[in-house]
Amino acid sequence: MQLTMHETSGRVTSVSLTCDPAGGTHRHRDTACATLTAVDGDFARITPHRQKCTMIYSPVDVTALGSWRGTQVTYRTTYPNKCAADSQSNGVFAL
């Protein structure tokens, strides 16, 4: 799966993530795979983790493209900032 984050500054971060076994270039691939396994690859079902984030609005657009256990996955959303992306995705978008 390819995970990408576009920041308002123009910076783009893109990583790969594979699970079973965990691999790819994601810095926290074990955590990201555990999160996705718990929701069977359904990003909409991810339970956020509690984390204090600033209220600074600096939106990031995130995308996940690939497959989860043979099913195509396309997920796109916008978070108010990078901290919120990490918190709301329970580490999947901690890029």
TrEMBL record:
<comment type="subunit">
    <text>Homodimer.</text>
</comment>
<keyword id="KW-0722">Serine protease inhibitor</keyword>
<dbReference type="GO" id="GO:0008233">
    <property type="term" value="F:peptidase activity"/>
</dbReference>
<comment type="similarity">
    <text>Belongs to the protease inhibitor I16 (SSI) family.</text>
</comment>
<dbReference type="Pfam" id="PF00720">
    <property type="entry name" value="SSI"/>
</dbReference>
<protein>
    <submittedName>
        <fullName>Protease</fullName>
    </submittedName>
</protein>
<keyword id="KW-0964">Secreted</keyword>
<dbReference type="InterPro" id="IPR000691">
    <property type="entry name" value="Prot_inh_I16_SSI"/>
</dbReference>
<dbReference type="GO" id="GO:0006508">
    <property type="term" value="P:proteolysis"/>
</dbReference>
<keyword id="KW-1015">Disulfide bond</keyword>
<keyword id="KW-0645">Protease</keyword>
<feature type="domain" description="Subtilisin inhibitor">
    <location>
        <begin position="9"/>
        <end position="81"/>
    </location>
</feature>
<keyword id="KW-0646">Protease inhibitor</keyword>
<keyword id="KW-0378">Hydrolase</keyword>
<dbReference type="InterPro" id="IPR023549">
    <property type="entry name" value="Subtilisin_inhibitor"/>
</dbReference>
<dbReference type="InterPro" id="IPR036819">
    <property type="entry name" value="Subtilisin_inhibitor-like_sf"/>
</dbReference>
